[in-house]
Amino acid sequence: MRNARRDFPEGFLFGAATSSYQIEGHATGGAGRTHWDDFAATPGNVVRGENGDLACDHYHRFGEDLDLVRDAGFDAYRFSTSWARVLPEGRGPVNEAGLDYYDRLTDAMLERGLKPCATLYHWELPSPLADLGGWRNRDIAGWFADFTEVVMGRIGDRMHSVAPINEPWCVAWLSHFMGYHAPGLRDIRATARAMHHVLLAHGRAIETMRGLGMSNLGGVFNMEWSDPAEDTAESAEKATLYDAIYNRWFLGGVFRGAYPDEVLAGLEPHLPTGWQDDFPTIGAKLDWCGINYYTRKLIAPDPGPWPGLKEVEGPLPKTFMDWEICPEGLYRFLTRTARDYTGDLPLYVTENGMAGQDDLRAGKVDDPHRTDYLDAHLDQVRRAIAEGAPVRGYFIWSLLDNYEWSLGYEKRFGLVHVDFDTLARTPKASYHEVAKALKG
Ligand code: FCB
Asked: Which H or E run contains 76?
């Protein structure tokens, strides 16, 4: 790796990220059923119909996994708490084993000198709440606030930082408009409601945690840069609309108390009544803003109903996800977010990384593509910092190969290889490169 810790400001945090459903093994420990279990059980949704029943069995192996985080020299570990593990019905009775688990996990991080950075919701909605309409039902904001109170009432005293919801765009648009993630809907009315309720739930969780006396609370937004596919006014307009749906809706709601007009043009007729009155809650003050960044998209017009756009294959080199590698997009987002939305608020890159075809050969995984990807993105983080963007940390997605949602176990994002038959962990070459960089 070309980049090293010494190239970043004093106190800059380096971390590794994971999420509960993707690694824990959800069939264990009394966790309730989630809409991802239902989605995966429906033919055609997930590659080979795979689910998170066993995943990396992190539930039983977290000690070994946290040793790997510590030994690489990371400062922080970003993890998530499963709603259905803690409240199997989504509301009401607590699964004490689930709460105990997050308690032990927290202490295990602290014992290893790692800062616990929690995300309350990384997508495993309890099925009984999906039965009630899930993110389409306004009551979800209250259910989520109650869940927040239960979990953070137990571990909140030891968290370094907390964000309520991972990637609101995925929770709302990807899952209710595109249908690629659970609950797999393709419905504009459901989408509009989810787009709003996800932010309302975020705000309620922040208010709840403030009530518990907690600090260092933020939001984690995934961002995709969009460029026009062709040099035409129509393409440019659609790329701007894509940016508004994907990125500016959520930042606008949280940091400016307003949604972009070009998205309201499509969604307003479907929003719940009184949505304008929710901005004081949605905009609850934050202490930092997290950006998950992987790729950019080329956008072109597409005939048909709003939004009338489509993604077009781009010319840049791609990862195993078929995502173009465009490190400069990260720089653009860091500088633009500070300039247009967050000012001096600390920014964190809360996810960045790539999937590769990472084969285990003679006990080793050679993944120079991953080291190059990380280096190229770290260059852009430094460029943003040099221009004054208040970037305070960088988290790699992911510590382990894991359940990559509708793509099952095929797409390997880990610094550590996982053999999904034996569950053996093998640090890849990139893990060793990162470890060297963090010591230097
Ligand atoms: C992000 C998700 C994470 C993982 C990576 C590849 O959108 O937060 O769970 O799927 O993408």
From this structure: strand 76-80
Give me ligand 1 centre to Cα 166, in Å: 9
Q: What is the mean pLDDT of the chain?
A: 98
Name the residue range of residue 285's domain: 5-439
pTM for this predicted structure: 0.98
CA distance 66 to 80: 14
Measured from the CB, is residue 167 less than 6 Å from ligand 1? yes
List of residues 6+ apart from 175 with CB closer than 8 A:
135, 181, 182, 183, 184, 185, 194
Q: Does ligand 1 have an atom closer than 6 angstroms to the CB of 80?
A: no
342 lines ligand 1 (CB under 6 A): no
Report pLDDT for 440: 73
Three-state DSSP at 102 gives helix
* Annotated active-site residue in 50, 262, 324, 351: 351
Respond yes or no: is residue 268 known to be catalytic: no
Q: Report the C-alpha gap between 387 and 244 in whole angstroms.
A: 25
pLDDT band at 352 (very low <50, low <70, confident <90, very high): very high
Write the CATH number for 206: 3.20.20.80
Per residue in 192-242, pLDDT tens? 999 999 999 999 999 999 999 999 999 999 999 999 999 999 999 999 999
Atom 10 of ligand 1 has which residue's CA nearest to it? 404
* Active-site residue flag, 50: no
- Mean pLDDT over 413-422 rounds to 98
What SS3 class is residue 217?
strand
What's the structural domain count of the chain?
1
